[in-house]
Amino acid sequence: MRRETEAALSTLLTPDQTQVVFGEGNPDAPLMLVGEAPGPQEDREGRPFVGKSGQLLERVLTELGLDRSRDVWISNVVKVWPTRRQGRSLRTRPPNAAERQASWPFFEREVRLIRPKALLLLGGTAAKAVLGRSAVRMRDIRGKWLETPFGIPALVTYHPSYILRMQGMRPDEAERLLAEFRADVRAAAERAGLLAPIHTETTDAGAE
C-alpha cells in the first residue's frame, strides 16, 4: 500500500516538497497515533513525527515504557507537507481541500489495514478529519473517547506542536498541557491493552 499511496499522491507534490510521507511503526500495533500532516523535517526524511513534535511524542512514549517502532503505528491524515512560500522561506499552512480529499482514501485504507484497537488523535485538525466534523472545540472533546466511522474508539488530545508553542509563551500552562497529554497517551495505551490500568490502593483507616 505504501507504494500505491506514494505513486498516487506524488501528483500533489510541488517543487517545494520532497516526498509523500507514509505511516510507520508496527503494522500489528493495537494503538494508532494520528496527526494532521507532515512538517518540513518529515518531508525531508520521509517519516512521520521526526521533528521537534515527534521528539516530544517519543519522549512521552518512552517515559510510559512504550516504543514507537514496537508498540504503535504513527501516521498523518494528509500525506504531504502543506507548505507555502513567504519570501524566500517556506512555511507550514493548514492542509487545503485538495490535499485532504486526495489523502483521505489512502488514510482510510491504512486504518482498516492496521485495524488498531484504539486511535489517539493528535490535535483538532486530525480530530475533525477522523470524526467527520466540520469543527471541534478541544476543551469539549480532549480526553474523551469518541466513536469513529471505522468502528474504532478514538481519544482526542493535543498536538505536540501546540505544547511546544506554549512552552515559549506560557511555561506554566505548557506544563499542565504536557501532563494532560501524557495522561491521554497513557489512557489510549491502556485502552489498546499496551499498559495495565493504574489502580489506586486505599487503606482502611480503622485497620491500624
Describe this protein's structure.
InterPro entries: UDG_Type-4/5, Ura-DNA_glyco_family4, Uracil-DNA_glycosylase-like, Uracil-DNA_glycosylase-like_sf. Belongs to the uracil-DNA glycosylase (UDG) superfamily. Type 4 (UDGa) family. This is Type-4 uracil-DNA glycosylase. Pfam families: UDG (PF03167). The chain is of the alpha/beta class and 208 residues long. The chain has a single domain (2-195), classed as Uracil-DNA glycosylase-like domain (Uracil-DNA Glycosylase, subunit E), CATH 3.40.470. The chain has eight helices and eight strands; from the N terminus they run H-E-E-H-H-E-E-E-H-E-H-H-E-E-H-H. Strands 1-3-2-6-8-7 form a six-stranded mixed β-sheet, sandwiched between helices. Helix 7 (160-169) runs antiparallel to helix 8. The longest helix is centred in the last third of the chain and has 21 residues, at 171-191. The protein is globular. It starts with a helix and ends in a 17-residue tail after the last helix. 38% of the residues are buried.
Q: What layout of secondary structure does this protein have?
A:
Elements: H1 2-9, E1 24-25, E2 31-35, H2 40-45, H3 52-63, E3 72-76, E4 83-86, E5 89-92, H4 97-114, E6 118-122, H5 124-131, H6 138-141, E7 145-146, E8 154-157, H7 160-169, H8 171-191
Parallel strand pairs: 2-3, 2-6, 6-8
Antiparallel strand pairs: 1-3, 4-5, 7-8
